[in-house]
Specification:
Elements: H1 2-18, H2 21-25, H3 27-39, H4 55-62, H5 66-86, H6 96-114, H7 124-152
Helix pairs in contact: 3-6, 5-6
Signal peptide: 1-19
InterPro entries: 4_helix_cytokine-like_core
Keywords: Signal
Length: 153
C-alpha cells in the first residue's frame, strides 16, 4: 500500500513537469515577450540600478527539481506582471499597445505555468527562508527610513 501510494505520488510529480506545455510549445511566446520588452519603449537607460538583482537565487533554483524551477519562473513572471500592471506608467513614453501586448504575453505564460505547477509546491523550508529574507529587507528599509526622517526633521 505504501509503495503504491509513493509510486503514484512520484508519477504525479514527474507528470506535472514533463507534460508541461509551457516548456515545449511556448518558445515563440517567450521570444515574443523578450521582443516586446525591447520595442515597447525607446532605448534602455544607461543608468545603473541601485537594487541588486538576485543572481544567486537563479543558481540555487537551477539545482532544484523541475516543479520548483517552474514555480520560480511562474512566480517571477507574476511579480513582473504586477510591477508593470499596477505602477503608474503615465510618466513613460512607452507604446501603450505594445506594453499591453507585453503584459498579455506575461499573463498567458503565468496561466500556462499554473497547469505545470501544483498549488502547494513550495516547501516549509522555502517559506521560512523567504520570511527570514523579508525580515532582513524590512530592517534595512526601517534603517533607511530612520535616516531619511533624521535628515528631514
Amino acid at each position: 500500500m505504501v509503495i503504491s501510494t509513493s509510486l503514484i505520488f512520484i508519477i504525479c510529480m514527474l507528470t506535472s513537469g514533463l507534460c508541461c506545455n509551457w516548456l515545449t510549445d511556448n518558445s515563440k511566446l517567450r521570444n515574443t515577450t523578450m521582443v516586446l520588452i525591447e520595442v515597447m519603449g525607446g532605448e534602455f537607460t544607461k543608468q545603473d540600478c541601485l537594487v541588486l538583482f538576485p543572481y544567486k537565487m537563479y543558481k540555487r533554483v537551477e539545482k532544484r527539481e523541475v516543479e520548483s524551477q517552474l514555480g520560480f519562473i511562474r512566480d517571477s513572471l507574476k511579480e513582473i506582471f504586477h510591477l508593470y500592471r499596477y505602477d503608474n506608467l503615465s510618466s513613460t513614453s512607452w507604446d501603450p499597445v505594445k506594453t499591453m501586448l507585453f503584459l498579455e504575453s506575461i499573463n498567458r505564460q503565468i496561466y500556462e505555468l499554473n497547469s505545470c505547477v501544483s498549488k502547494y509546491f513550495l516547501l516549509y523550508a522555502f517559506w521560512e527562508l523567504l520570511r527570514k529574507k523579508t525580515k532582513h529587507h524590512l530592517v534595512s528599509l526601517d534603517i533607511l527610513g530612520n535616516k531619511l526622517q533624521r535628515s528631514i526633521g
